[in-house]
Amino acid sequence: MQYMKPAFRVSRSLITINPKPFIFLTSPFLTLQTLRSQSPISSFSSSMASSDFSSLPAPSLEKQFGEFRTHLEESGTLRDRIRTVVSEIESTTRLMYASILLVHHSRPTPELLEKAKTQIDVLKEKYKQLADILGGCPGQYYRYHGDWKSETQTVVSVLTFMNWLETGKLLEHKEAEEKLGLNGPEFNLDVEDYLVGVCFMSNELPRYVVNQVTAGDYDCPRKVLKFLTELHAAFRILNLRNDFLRKKFDGMKYDLRKVEEVYYDVKIRGLTPNGESVADQGIERQS
Amino acid sequence: MLRSFSSSLHRLSLFMASEKPQRLHQITGTNFQNTTKRPKTMATATATATTATDSAMKEPFTKYTEYLNNLNDKRERVVKASRDITMNSKKVIFQVHRMSKYNKVEVLEKAEKDLAAVTNQYVSRLVKELQGTDFWKLRRAYSPGIQEYVEAATFCSFCKSGTLLKLDEINNTLLPLSDPSLQPLQINILDYLLGLADLTGELMRLAIGRISDGELEFAEKICSFARDIYRELTLVVPHMDDSSDMKTKMDVMLQSVMKIENACFSVHVRGSEYIPLLGSNDPSSFLVGVPDIEL
Question: Residue A188 forms beta bridges with which residues?
Answer without folding.
Answer: A183
